[in-house]
Design brief:
This protein is mainly α. The protein folds into 2 domains: about 90 residues, no CATH class; about 100 residues, Cytochrome Bc1 Complex, Chain D, domain 2. Helix content is about 45%, strand content about 5%. The chain is built from 12 helices and 2 strands. Strand 1 and strand 2 form a beta hairpin. Bound molecules: heme C (2 copies). One heme C (HEC) binds next to helix 5. GO terms for molecular function: electron transfer activity; heme binding; metal ion binding. This is Cytochrome c.
């Protein structure tokens, strides 16, 4: 871990006045290049090789502006919480025990936090990364509500999403990101587009394309909306 130098850099930046940059996103880019590129890439990942993908230290932020809700992003950067309880490389964190495989929470590092001003600049920069707007333009669903029991059954039993994702009640697999804050965290068009064609977002994703039709996707979107901690 490069924690000490990271903290030092943020400390140094915190002492500088931020009006030196003409535009918030320029300052955000500089901050990103100093504090985040050690782990995150904003480069085009369309032709990424499997070995490059496996060497990634953190999720790509290439299309951050097409993916996140800006409000969530700014808040999360100040007080980050785990999204993948197994970390980005969950296999490194799995402990084999007599009770089956469990995640070694102590092995999941705490995400570095920034101050409020830095979070604003970083959010401004990251929300400008929108290379996949045309994928979002194809989506036209508004998240609605669904009975939680029906939704749970659909998510876990019928569609098998719960094998890799935690849904309502934080129950489910951990090889994918948790989805009980998905509506708070992600743009609804991104959610439906990712469920429709995960490989168009991440060519080496572990998530299978289930070739779901619109009404199946809508049901899942409604479920994620229903279980969202934010809207309940
Ligand atoms: C030491 C490596 C490291 C550094 C430095 C780092 N991150 Fe991360 N970041 C991670 C990992 C690992 C995750 C996945 C955490 C999770 O899913 O719980 C992550 C997750 C994220 C996410 C959520 C991504 C997603 O797709 O869900 C955002 C946004 C983010 N980081 C932004 C930043 C920003 C901005 C900086 C610079 C201030 C930064 N990170 C610095 C390792 C790092
Ligand atoms: C075999 C495991 C697996 C299955 C089954 C699976 N997913 Fe995924 N899913 C993943 C992984 C891995 C990611 C991307 C992880 C990343 O970017 O770090 C993902 C990403 C997502 C995302 C985007 C989340 C984000 O934070 O970027 C959504 C939404 C999603 N899945 C919904 C579903 C739904 C709904 C189903 C059921 C139809 C499903 N998934 C089935 C593994 C799976």
């Amino acid at each position: 871990m490069k924690e000490p130098s990271f903290t030092l850099k943020l400390l140094t930046l915190a002492l500088l006045p931020f009006n030196f940059a003409s535009h918030a996103s320029d300052a955000g880019r500089d901050l990103f290049n100093q504090s985040c590129v050690a782990c995150h890439s904003v480069q085009d990942n369309s032709n990424i090789s499997l070995s490059q993908r496996l060497e990634e230290k953190a999720p790509t932020l290439f299309y951050a502006g097409n993916k996140f809700n800006a409000q969530w992003l700014q808040k999360w950067l100040v007080a980050p919480s785990n999204i993948r309880s197994g970390g980005h490389f969950f296999l490194n964190r799995v402990k084999v025990t007599d009770d089956g495989d469990v995640i070694d929470e102590s092995a999941v590092p705490q995400h570095p936090a920034v101050n409020a001003e830095q979070a604003k600049l970083l959010t401004s920069y990251l929300m400008q990364q929108r290379p996949k707007s045309e994928l979002l333009a194809r989506e036209h669903m508004t998240p609605g509500k669904i009975s939680k029991t029906l939704g749970d059954n659909d998510f876990h039993k019928f569609k098998g999403c719960g094998a890799c994702h935690q849904g309502g009640d934080a129950y489910g697999g951990v090889s994918g990101p948790e989805l009980y804050t998905a509506i708070d965290r992600l743009q609804p068009e991104y959610i439906s587009s990712y469920i429709r064609s995960p490989e168009l977002w991440d060519p080496k994703t572990l998530m299978p394309n289930r070739h779901l039709n619109d009404s199946s996707i809508k049901k899942l979107l409604d479920y994620l909306n229903t279980i969202s901690l934010n809207t309940q």
